[in-house]
Amino acid sequence: MEINKIIQGNCLTVLKTLPDNSVDCCITSPPYWGLRDYGHEEQLGSEKHFKDFVNNLCNVFDEIKRVLKDTGTCFVNLGDSYSSDTKGTGGPSDKQLSNKGSRYVAKKFDTEIPNKCLCLVPERFAIEMVDRGWTIRNQIIWHKPNQMPSSATDRFTVDFEKIFFFVKKPTGYYFEQQLEKSIDPESINGRRKRNPDKYIKVKQGSMQNWDREGVKYVDRNMRTVWSINTEPNSEAHFATYPQRLVERMIKAGCPENGLVIDPFFGSGTTGIYARKVNRNFVGIELNPEYVEIANKRLFKELGMFA
Question: For 86-144, what is each residue's pLDDT tens digit?
Fold first, then answer.
């Protein structure tokens, strides 16, 4: 198996050619159901019913489970969609179809649930994965502080997606504890007792206090709500997830010099960060145009080490 390469092809077909127990970690963000057209007849996400999508997606992860070592971990970022007669609005341009991905236009999707209702695809996927033998260790909330405003006026704006942390075996899997900075509550309580007229104010996300006197920071086990901005990329399609998101997953779930696989490689973020922190990768991507985008990004970020 060649490493640090992108294999162009159908991920299920390609995965069946890879050896058993050969990969340390999987980090990926599959296409979401019924939302975008990536311009390939074999793409996932274009199924008429979400049950078919969940089944097809879990078939891919059956193969991921086979190629993972017994110590293997798997992180899957998957968003949801709403039930409606059609998905998306507006006509795609040729550039959108060939380079960016476009919303589905006037295509009916069967749901069996009320119109405008969340389909709960991530939850259905997670349950099916457990039914197929995976162990789920965490549901992680990826909160997006810079989420674009929504045009909807009859519901709240959705500013998060879920990441599921699966393992192949319930014990003995690789996991390196990740720590985050937190204010020691005892130091806050003590400060308030000494001077109750003053208070501690923390800038969200930076852990910098405006009144440092008497405040102590401590390390704690990382929580499961991750506030990380999305990162725009002029070359890649809109589904690119940020390297800071990959960082937490790869450091927790893959040892140094280990091998990470991403069966929906897209614009290559998983592979880029893997190489930056001394991990290897195998990327699988169906669309040859995205393979070209990913290779350009790898060279731009890593140069001769791409």
Answer: 443 322 323 333 334 444 443 445 667 888 889 999 999 999 999 999 999 999 999 99
What is the Cα–Cα distance from 218 to 163, expressed in whole angstroms? 26
Cβ(156)–Cβ(70) below 8 Å: no
CA distance 126 to 166: 9
Q: Across-strand partners of 209?
A: 202
The pLDDT tens digits of the residues spanning 144-173 come to: 999 888 888 999 999 999 999 999 999 999
* Pairing label, strands 259-262, 225-227: unpaired
Rounded-to-integer distance, Cα 202 and Cα 86, Å: 44
State both tokens at 133: 């033998």
Tokens of 216: 């102590």
